[in-house]
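Data availability (excerpt). The following record was deposited with the supplementary files.
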Amino acid sequence: MKIIPLSEGTFTIDGSKKFIPFDTGKDELQQRPVGSLLVEIQPFAVITSKDIIVIDTGLGFSTADGTLQIHQNLLNNGIGPMEVTKVLLSHLHKDHAGGIYKTDEMLKQKFLSFPSATYYVHKDEMEFALKKGSPSYRVSDFEGLQNSDQVVLLEGDGRIDDYITYHVTGAHSPCHQVFWIEEDGQKVFYGGDVAPQLQQMKNRFIAKYDYDGKKCMELRQQWWQQGREEKWTFLFYHDIKTPVFSFV
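Predicted structure:
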């Protein structure tokens, strides 16, 4: 497997749930509101023998010329948006679901960002997100997804094409899910926002922003131990320095 981090940059976020760009070379975190978190926004492309997979879709920001940022990041790595065959969504918070659609400004219509892909989202997460709405969820990012013939609404835990495993954890949000991708003896694990940064895997850290912080901590400890024993490769969506870590 080939893993490509698709960084959209570093941001701070506080209780307002707004993502403010942060230049690590010039900006001072102390000048941001008290309690601001410093995070990377980092979807991933995983290339297997069967698929080109995108995991979560970023903030949905565009470049100066109007290109969707996640599209540009893929193009920078030689991958066209039409080549993506699967999109795995851990949950629908706006920093993970912003790039699901692309808006055509001339036509005033929105289209799925990856026209050839099948999107996988958990049915319970979709229902919860539509009811919950702002500030964590931006319904316009995913509204209508549940009615698309390109979407598979997952239920419970299970497998996709016999090599991708999905499991509902809750913990960060009530219906959050995680993924394992296995091929040729390699196991890649994506823990979404239950396991967002390498440092959190190594400490008994409980975050107030999680739906169930204690469960998040317990799952991270469990995965870290199992990953060490089974030689997993971890993908960290919000880690500034270490997007990919492998025990191999």
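Summary of structural features: The chain has one domain: 2-246.
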